[in-house]
Sequence to fold (367 residues):
Amino acid sequence: MKNKKNLLIIVICALGTFLVIEGVLSLLQNLKPSISAQSVAIKPVESQISAAGSIHSESETTLHFQTPGKLTYLPFKIGDKISAGQTIASLDTYELQKELTAALNTYKSTRDTFDQTNANTQNGILQSQQRYGLEVTTRQGITGDSENSALNDIAKRIVDQNQANLDNSVINVELTNYALSLATLTSPITGVVTGEDVTVPNVNVTTTTSFSVADPSTPVFQAFVLPQDIDFVQVGSPAKITIDGLPGIVLEGTVERIYPQKTTLSDGSSAYQVDITSENLKNTGKLGQTGQVFIQSTARSNSMLVPIWAVVGHQYVWLVKDGKPVLQKVNVGETHGDEIEINGLSSTDQKIILDPKSIADKIYKIL
Fold:
């Protein structure tokens, strides 16, 4: 009887083990469609970041008038050389000259009045002139220290008013002279004129009318790198520049500057400006020429990008192989936004599971 009971227990355990194995196999088979739905192709990181751009100058400027007016002087044309401090354009200043003359006349008159008032105060004349008014106002005689104190207070207020009038006349002269200076645009750098919105004088211009100057001796290739690539570019990275219209010529360069803010391009997209310098730009390219740059990526060789949440324990990823989940160890690199570099996957590793937690949860429930 005891042997029969033991045999029954063995049969039940064997049957239970068989059912568990069958369940595991069945669940793993059922995982296949959900894994497929949660997988994504791995994105390789290019060894070179390409970007379009054009040749600019490291020293360039665009000038605007701060007030509208009639353009009367335009001595330079596009392409002409210009020195720092030379006038590139100026407005009609006849009215401003007259306003300055009037302001100076007002200043002179106000200054004379101020000086005379000060002299009269020092000589006691101003106080004597105010005595009668003081007696009339109070309707009774005021004598002694009270009278002198009151007269001195009146004289001080008159002097202060004259001082204020003089100060205002000086301010008017300065403002008119400042407006006169704004009617002339001078180049802050030595270079060539690269742009003019108007080409002839005696026309009306506005504050949006522009005049551009650049120094051709300091050329730089100005490229625009897409946001998804900017993390793989750093100052000092080597680069190769090709110029449109110059086939077969490749210029060696270096990334000199990466601008922190995005720039909106003409097509409405956004990119980061990156300046690349090259010694050969001076002799090969000209300002305004377009081209392409290929910047050496900072990513490690054979790096791939995956979503950061797909990496388990900072060193594993779940791959789909033969329709089944397989845990694969990888080398982790830099993080770029919500993606991370990984190394260690072979060329046959095609897909990675985006939701590793769901795989772990299902296996954990089985065990």
Remarks:
- The first helix runs from residue 2 to 37.
- The chain has a mean pLDDT of 81.
